[in-house]
Design goal:
mainly alpha, 6% strand, two-stranded parallel sheet
Length: 126
């Protein structure tokens, strides 16, 4: 499927009017995280199932964000991440994502703490 065909499928998926007039419009859209991350906003979506984890959690977050954009028709969104129990690769990816998110949070906390220290020193000297 080329880019134009993909765009047409996504448009048919998002367009509520086409659902009323046609039985061929999809109720389920299956795509990869890479495809959805290319800029296709899924405004009719309210559920996202990620069937295989990505090494970078930001790619998954991007997919979740694509169903929480302006124009979203459904206020409630639900995201699922399916991880195979005992599948070492998937468990390893999930553990890496968790550690990376914790590291990012620690780095941001440290950055904010350092900024506040700089401001305190500047205020004392003034």
């Amino acid at each position: 499927m080329d880019a134009d065909e993909r765009a047409e499928v996504v448009q048919a998926f998002n367009d509520d009017e086409s659902l009323k007039n046609s039985t061929s419009s999809p109720d389920i859209l299956v795509g990869t995280t890479a495809l959805i991350g290319q800029g296709y906003t899924l405004t009719r979506s309210f559920r996202l199932v990620i069937m295989g984890p990505e090494w970078l959690a930001t790619e998954e977050d991007q997919c979740v964000g694509r169903i929480r954009r302006l124009g979203q028709n459904n206020r409630r969104t639900i995201s699922y991440r399916l991880i195979g129990k005992g599948v070492k690769v998937e468990e390893g990816i999930l553990n890496r994502q968790t550690l990376r998110k914790e590291f990012e949070e620690m780095a941001l906390d440290l950055q904010n703490e350092l900024k506040s220290k700089v401001i305190e020193v500047s205020d004392d000297e003034a």
